Structures are given as C-alpha cells and as structure tokens.
C-alpha cells in the first residue's frame, strides 16, 4: 500500500512539473520574443525611459501614456467613492438588496465591450456636449467596466469584518457616518480597497475597444497607431505595459497573503491557578 501511494505521489509531482514547464514556456516565450524584437533598434529603450526625448519623438505616445495614467487614477478614485459607501450602506441598512446590487455590479462582465460601446455612444454624445471631447471622459465608461472586479474585491474585504458591530460601536460613541466610513470601516478594508484599485489600474491600462470606437486617446490606441510607423517602439511599450500589469497583480497577491497572515488566532486565556487543596487535619 505504501508503494502504491508513493508511485501515485511521484506521478502527480511529475504531472505538476510538466504542466508548470509547458505553461511557463507558453507565457515566457512570447515575452522573450518581444524583448528580442524591441532591442533590434538600439535607440528604442533609451528613448522609452527618457521622457523629454519620448515626448519629442513620439508625441502621440506621450499623450496616450499621460491620458491612460490620468484615466486610471480618476477611474480608481471614482470607483471607490461610488462603490465603498454603497457596499457598506447595503450591508448596514439594506441587506435584502445585496443580491440586487451584486447582480448590477456584475452585469458589465456579461456584456461584450463592443455592445457596451453601442449603448454608450448616444450617452457620450451628450457627455461630449457638456464636458467636451477630452479623453478623460472615458472615466465614466471605465468605472462601469471595472465594477465587477472592484465589487468582488471590496465585498470580500467587507465579508472578513463585522461591519455592523463596528458601525454601531462607533455610532454609540458619537461618531458621524463620515467618521464611521473614513476612520472605522475604511482602515479595516484597506487591503480590499488597494486590491480594487490595482485591478482598476491594470484594466484601464489595457483597455482598447471602448477608447478606439469612441475616438478617444489612451495608451493602447497610441500603441496601435505607433505600430504602423515604429514597430520596435510599439512592442517595447506593449512589453512595459504588460510587465506593469504583472507587477500590479503580484502586489495584489502579496497584499492578499499579508492580509491572511495578519489574521492571528486569539490566544487562549490563561487558566486560573488551581486552588490549594485544604489539608485534612491529622487524626
């Protein structure tokens, strides 16, 4: 019996290593090819890390980078302002609507981006009329796009704490709802908020369809246009954006592991000292 278990363990170990190697080659080989292609022109990477030179040689790319970074920051901010108070309020006051809110937040995940653009195009005609044709107006569409991922991250953080008890304790001490949200609930879901923000940034930096079809500028649209004139720089920027997304997801996993490890089990209360037995009087 022990020999059968050992052989099964060896087969499982060999299978896991085989899958790991195959997937590693599948993911790493394109990255190696991108590095090799982008280094054929020696001036590509020095220009990419030199912002004044990049802005002078590739102004459309510099505009796309600044637009995407601004969009990512504003989208993350708008998403947190809308989603965190809503999720907390639903848990405290409207628990029966939790499934409805979850369904509405997960709905953009089931709608293809091209269909979403068709629905947003008439809305953006009015957005352009009131706010102009700036690329920052994409923040509204991106906020809808990131709702499924951000909601799951924040909901998981709220599920890990007793929001109702914390809020009632703070309210009983005279705290207002703003103080409850900012100084009581938010510090306890800091990891969840950071996770939602990282996911938002990664999604916004990689979005192409909505920006292209709505005739707005972002990083991916700029990379697409740049590929027609400078393929090496286009591949180098794509590789940089991909590595940035990997770093964000790595930080996300590290924050999740740190959060799990920080949840310590409360030590058991020390036992009370045993009472000294009274001695019976000697006969």
TrEMBL record:
Pfam families: BPD_transp_1. The chain crosses the membrane at residues 14-35, 72-92, 104-124, 130-151, 191-214, 234-255. The keyword Transmembrane applies. Coiled coil: none annotated. Residues 65-256 form the ABC transmembrane type-1 domain. Keywords: Cell inner membrane, Cell membrane, Membrane, Transmembrane, Transmembrane helix, Transport. This is ABC transporter permease subunit. It comes from Paractinoplanes hotanensis.
């Amino acid at each position: 019996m022990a020999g059968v278990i050992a052989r099964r363990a060896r087969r499982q170990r060999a299978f896991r290593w085989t899958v790991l190697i195959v997937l590693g080659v599948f993911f790493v080989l394109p990255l190696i090819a991108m590095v090799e292609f982008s280094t054929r022109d020696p001036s590509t990477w020095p220009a990419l890390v030199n912002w004044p030179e990049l802005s002078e040689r590739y102004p459309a790319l510099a505009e796309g980078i600044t637009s995407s970074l601004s969009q990512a920051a504003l989208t993350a901010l708008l998403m947190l302002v809308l989603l965190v108070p809503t999720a907390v309020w639903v848990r405290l006051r409207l628990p029966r609507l939790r499934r409805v809110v979850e369904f509405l937040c997960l709905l953009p995940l089931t709608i293809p981006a091209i269909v979403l653009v068709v629905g947003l195009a008439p809305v953006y005609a009015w957005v352009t009329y009131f706010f102009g044709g700036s690329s920052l107006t994409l923040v509204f569409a991106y906020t809808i796009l990131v709702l499924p991922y951000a909601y799951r991250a924040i909901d998981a953080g709220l599920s890990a704490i007793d929001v109702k008890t914390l809020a009632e304790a703070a309210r009983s001490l005279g705290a207002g709802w703003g103080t409850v949200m900012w100084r009581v609930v938010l510090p306890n879901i800091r990891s969840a908020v950071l996770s939602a923000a990282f996911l938002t940034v990664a999604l916004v930096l990689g979005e192409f369809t909505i920006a292209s079809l709505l005739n707005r500028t972002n990083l991916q649209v700029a990379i697409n246009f740049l590929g027609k004139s400078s393929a090496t720089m286009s591949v180098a920027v794509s590789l940089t954006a991909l590595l940035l997304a990997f770093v964000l997801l790595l930080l996300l996993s590290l924050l999740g592991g740190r959060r799990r490890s920080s949840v310590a089990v409360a030590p058991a209360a020390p036992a009370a000292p045993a009472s000294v037995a009274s001695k019976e009087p000697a006969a």
